[in-house]
Amino acid sequence: KPSAGNFNSTDCSNQQQQRLAMAAATRSTTTTTTAVNSAGGGAPKAGRDHVVIFPFMAKGHTLPLLHFATALSEHHTSLSVTLLTTPGNAAFARSRLPASVDLVELPFPTLPPLPAGVESTDALPCPSLYPAFLHATALLREPFAEFMASLPSPPLVLVSDFFLGFTHRVATNAGAPSCSTACPASPSAGAEPGALFHVPGMPEHVAITTEEIPDTVAKFADPEDLVVRFIIDNIGDSDVRSWGVLVNSFATLDEDYVASLEAFYQPGARAWLVGPMFLAAADTAELDEEQDPEGCLSGSTRELPNRDPWSTFPHISDEQLDEIAHGLVKSGHPFLWVVRTNTWVPPVDVGPNGLIVRGWVPQRSILAHKAMGGFVSHCGWNSVMESLAAGKPPEQPLNAKHIADIVGAGVRIHTKAGGMAAVDIVGRKEVEEKVNALMDADSEVGKRMRAKATWAQQAAKSAVSEGGGSRVALQELVDELQRTYDDTVV
Q: Signal sequence: where (predicted)?
């Protein structure tokens, strides 16, 4: 059983820092994984039948855990499931959860200069407030500890987000065992731009360039970076000490990387591939036509390339939006484009076959629509799962590389290193060419991508069906937790 304790930069070796950096990047850019911490505390029912879930307050992080809570409640009816949130996020969570899942609100802390009422990253008025938001979430430790102390008996497990590092410490202080995810990656000294280097601990074919290193990793040597400082001071090694890790993917797609992922954790830790979580939940709440305020599904267009509406507020300059607009129009294909800005004005008439939406859209319904031919996205992992599950090829650099170069179900629009903040402008010609490559049903490239996307669609649906790999993994997870409950709870 791991000991409790804070973690800071003074007791973090270079290798540990690299691992922490890649762990941070894995979650902040892909939303692929979520730490699972075995918790002390209690439950309204018998502890071995109670699961507590605590998502980070960002839509891309929250949605998979809402789906996980739904799947547990629907497929394991003997369990009592409680999801923790804050007042500003309660309505969003409640509308996407069955009544069988209890919702508990923890008061969101006040921390200037964060505006009052901003309780989710998508509500931030500007990206510069993101570090302040992270520090505000860390102040949820006290109300969370009070909630855990109020429970009459320890719950079966606490499922919490990587960014909520304090949850692990509270659970450990309650006497619970634990263990966490990601793989270290750093280029060799003096690596030239564009040169490939192997990711340590991963299969030999997993090699990336310096340009593909996520922004957080690239900045991790800078102790003045506010997000890096938060990771070191407030998350530390809590992730690697988690009891196990949930992976929002399925074995057919990612089983080659499971052993490498598990090796990042303490001995005996497991990576549980239980996704795609939205399919596992069999959730239809977002498919209702009444939740399509822009009428996106009422048209009869043939192709609908779309940008991810749940992106982690990447900043897209007006100049870049101009180039995308020109490229989409010049491609000649009908499109639906979700733009997260109310101030930008299109520089070109999109015509009757183009639709620009600035609000929320039912992305899964759009992806599943028979008119949908392709998906242009910044490649957040939720969107990757939704796109592949719908059998549509999609366009976060590492996710894009995985889908395009390894799975073979997409084509990349190449960018430079340093994340969205450092990306050079992608010209309209490249946008046009890549959209046409994606949409050309007669080209060999297009045929290969569609074949791979169809394979992934069938594999995803099979994984969450009765007897499928993800459904079995979820059952094994619950069984193991219940089998060891009396031994692990103090």
A: none
C-alpha closest to that of 257 among 13, 20, 26: 26
Residues 319-353 have pLDDT tens digits of 988 998 999 899 888 888 888 778 899 999 988 88
Find residue 326's DSSP bridge partners: none
> Which token pair is 100?
């069988």
pLDDT tens digits, residue range 142-151?
999 999 988 8
Which pLDDT belongs to residue 322? Answer: 92
Place of tokens 């009869």: 300
Q: What is the pLDDT of residues 199-229, one digit of tens each?
A: 777 888 888 777 777 777 777 778 788 888 8
What average pLDDT does the chain have? 75
CB 201 within 8 A of CB 264: yes
Q: DSSP H helical segments within 289-348, as ranges? A: 318-331
Rounded CA-CA distance 404/22 in Å is: 21
- pLDDT at residue 236, as a whole number: 76
Question: Does 463 have pLDDT greater than 60?
Answer: yes
The set of residues, in sequence order, having a beta carbon less than 8 Å from that of 174 and lying 6+ positions away, is 39, 40, 41, 148, 154, 490
Q: Which single residue is written with the structure tokens 């949908």?
A: 372
Structure tokens at 366: 């759009």
Size of the chain, expressed as the number of residues it contains: 490
Helices (H), 237-317: 251-254, 258-263, 277-280
Label residues 45-56 b or e (16+ Cβ within 10 Å = b): eebbbbbbbbbb
Residues 335, 339, 342, 345, CA torsion sign: negative
Q: Distance between CA atoms of 23 and 231, rounded to whole angstroms? A: 10
Compute the distance between CA of residue 135 and CA of residue 155 in angstroms, rounded to an integer.
Answer: 27
Domains assigned to the chain: 50-283+466-489 (3.40.50.2000), 318-464 (3.40.50.2000)
CB 471 within 8 A of CB 464: yes
Residue with the bigger pLDDT between 168 and 400: it is 168
In this structure, how many other beta carbons lie within 10 angstroms of the beta carbon of residue 215?
Answer: 21
CA distance 406 to 339: 29
